[in-house]
Design brief:
By secondary structure, this protein is an alpha+beta fold. It contains 17 helices and 24 strands. The strands form six sheets. It has an eight-stranded mixed beta sheet with strand order 5-4-3-6-2-1-7-8. Strands 9-10-15-12-13 form a five-stranded mixed beta sheet, sandwiched between helices. The chain starts with 12 loop residues before the first helix and ends in an 8-residue tail after the last helix. 37% of the residues are buried.
């Protein structure tokens, strides 16, 4: 392809504006974030967000903050006009507010149609601003104290950018999660999120534990411990409340929710020490306070990442704060080291699992077996769970759905409602018919026939909770959870059941781990056992290398 030689030209203002608007507002989520930051900077104690059409049709944020005085309102939608930063260069190194660039309203007006109504409490009458592109009109109106900002028809004049937007359901899910993070880090405020006329998230002023209840439910809030140290506050979960991912580890710096650097996440895990198994992550909401000059919030277009001047020191304070919070409770005691799962670590074919002979039952939970000259220890619960999981997987697609005699109403939290809208068609495809009933309720009409007769407490609630969880594979999550409940528990194992479980495990396609990733079997080499006693193993003896040591 021939090389084109072109002269350098300065972009016309109208082109530069279209490009720059994308730096601040590239999706509806950005509009919500910027407007929430403005409201918080204005000292609002009540924030209400309305979203329509995934935010492309409308985003509206209403607050009871300080408002914009009439003499300044004409500059509200002008680029780089802000009341939050002094015009002096040094001010950019001493940011004390969430917003500071003066681009939010300008970028929103470039990307959509901006409508702003604002009134300080001491001012008679309100101001109204209409802005789209470079056209700005200001007029007088009446309104309560505070500010309401509406951005409508986002990217309607930018068809290429409009085509690249996520689906409304996916965007609503992200907006709900964003609101949840602000609730967690500002629990002392009133919060409300409405999507297409339906309330998805509400929170009344409370402490961080109450915010966890609003976002993740009361079961999670009952399992968190307060953290209160110099520069670090919030909550961490008890060791029994863990996840395989770190998506519920939340941090803020000087009130700004941020994507934490790996060093801070590692500090939290180190604060738990042996209380967490390998690969597990807790729930935490930690608010970090640093001197304004010790952090730089201007290193990311969406300000989700901040640079900390002394990250190792901050990480050390986080680690110590978490450790102290845990040490104040009986649960903070050393846990025994875990034994790594056996090889192979990748899924194996059925033929690779050895023929094992049962030789004993230990603690009514573990099977002792021998095979290939070694000692094998089988966790009967994990093995039974694996066998049940594979059986349910086979049966799920072989039977039609089971219609309930009467539809059942179930309570959903805001994130579950968002996921229902996103996954409804996929859930119906494998037999789960669940309808949004409004007001945080869902109507369950049918469940997969393979699951309908399982002896599982709260069967329908368990199915729905797993289907609307944050797992990327809800079908697998449902089956894994339902396989766990009826699997043999400690104290239930005897010789006959042990034989049955061992045979079922040997017939599995993937016998090495339960559906949740825990090992089903551990292998103790006969050679390692012999060497631990200071002997040669029988395999060494067979080679004639154990003379004189019998």
């Amino acid at each position: 392809m021939p090389t084109l030689t072109r002269t350098i030209a300065i972009l016309p203002p109208e082109v530069a504006r279209l490009i720059a608007a994308g730096e601040v507002v590239s999706r509806p989520l950005d509009v919500v974030r910027e407007l929430l930051e403005n409201a918080l900077d204005a000292g609002a104690t009540r924030l209400e967000v309305e979203v329509e059409g995934g935010g492309l049709r409308l985003v509206r944020v209403r607050d009871n903050g300080s408002g914009i005085p009439a003499e300044s309102v004409s500059l509200a939608a002008v680029r780089h006009a802000t009341s939050k930063l002094s015009p002096k260069p040094a001010a950019a190194l001493h940011v004390t507010t969430l917003g500071f660039r003066g681009e939010a309203l300008w970028a929103a007006a470039q990307a959509g149609q901006l409508h702003l109504v604002t009134r300080p409490a001491s001012q008679v009458g309100a101001s109204e601003v209409l802005a789209h592109g470079d056209e700005v009109t200001v007029s007088r109106t009446s309104a309560p104290a505070g500010t309401t900002v509406s951005v409508s028809n986002l990217f309607a004049a930018l068809p290429a950018r409009l085509r690249t937007q996520a689906s409304p359901a996916a965007e609503v899910r992200e907006i709900t999660a964003l609101m949840g993070r602000y609730v967690l880090h500002h629990p002392e405020l009133h919060w409300r999120l409405t999507v297409d006329g339906e309330v998805r998230l509400t929170h009344a002023p409370a402490d961080t534990r109450g915010a966890v209840a609003s976002v993740y439910g009361p079961l999670s809030s009952n399992r968190v411990l307060n953290v209160d140290a110099v520069g670090v506050s919030g909550v961490v979960s008890r060791p029994e409340l863990t996840r395989a991912r770190r998506d519920r580890m939340h941090f803020s710096v000087n009130g700004r929710p941020v994507l934490a650097p790996p060093e801070l996440e590692k500090a939290v895990l180190e604060g738990y020490g042996e209380l967490l198994p390998a690969g597990a992550a807790p729930l935490c909401v930690l608010n970090l306070t640093v001197a304004p000059e010790d952090h730089n919030p201007n290193v990311h277009p969406a300000k989700q990442v901040v640079a900390l001047a002394d990250l190792p020191d901050v990480a050390a304070r986080v680690r110590e704060a978490v450790a102290e919070a845990l040490a104040a409770h009986p649960l903070a005691r050393a846990a025994p080291a875990l034994i790594a799962p056996p090889e192979p670590t990748t899924p194996a074919q059925r033929g690779n699992f050895p023929e094992l002979t049962l030789v004993g039952v230990y603690q009514a939970l573990y099977l002792l077996a021998q095979g290939e000259g070694d000692l094998w220890v089988i966790d009967a619960h994990a093995a039974h769970e694996r066998a049940l999981f594979e059986r349910l997987t086979r049966e799920l697609g072989a039977a039609p759905s089971h219609d309930l005699p009467e539809p059942e109403l179930l309570h959903l939290n805001p994130e579950q409602v968002a996921r229902l809208h996103e996954r409804s068609a996929d859930l119906q495809a494998w037999g789960l018919n669940l309808e949004d009933f409004g007001a945080g309720l869902a109507r369950l009409r049918s469940v997969p026939a393979a699951l309908s007769a399982l002896a599982v407490p709260r069967l329908h609630a368990e199915i729905v909770e797993a289907a609307l969880g944050d797992s990327p594979d809800p079908r697998r999550e449902v089956l894994a959870r339902l396989a766990c409940a009826p699997a043999l528990k400690a104290g239930m194992l005897d010789w006959e059941r042990g034989l049955t479980v061992l045979a079922a495990l040997q017939a599995c396609e993937q016998p090495w781990a339960c559906p949740h990733g825990r090992p089903t079997v551990l292998r103790l080499s006969e050679r390692d056992l012999a060497h631990a006693f200071g002997r040669r193993s029988v395999r060494d003896v067979a080679r004639g290398r154990d003379e004189g040591r019998r």
